[in-house]
Amino acid sequence: MSRRPSPGPELVWAPWRIQYVKDESAGGFEGPECVFCDLPAQQDDARSYILHRGARAYVVMNLYPYNNGHVMTVPYEHTDTLRALDGETLAEVMQLTQRAQAALEEALRPQGFNLGINQGAAAGAGIADHLHLHLVPRWVGDTNFMPALGDTRVIPQHVDETYALLRGAFVR
Ligand SMILES: [Zn+2]
Q1: Tens of pLDDT, residues 41-61
Q2: CA dihedral 8, 12, 16, 20 (to 10 degrees)
Q3: Is 132 a catalytic residue?
């Protein structure tokens, strides 16, 4: 179970999830013990939805987004605690998150951001074994109505379109 991301809130329209399940059942995800170690090892950033690789960390889209444009900054180092990261890795995680925010601002014009790390399953970490920092763009009113209907959210843009937009903003 540790290699699969947490499903998170139920999505109304998320066709990429079907492909993800197909890939897994077809053996596409065979082997990896940890999805955050496996994604950069695949060497296929478009398929992995990796937006940028740094020296010590990378930025990847969340395929189970809390909102359109939800990305994560992930150190390559496999650790479950912030305390294990050295200063240079910590600095790069924040620098890449800063760049991701700039890309999101350019591509999606959000009005705010949530930024956070869930450490441990008790804190809500979907993949508790490998630390990752969430960056979630926000718009006024984006969650005011749907959660009342049972933790359901509408993600209006297909993840492939969002990936292309963000990737373009990242390289500029
Ligand atoms: Zn890992």
Answers
A1: 998 999 999 999 999 999 999
A2: 50
A3: yes
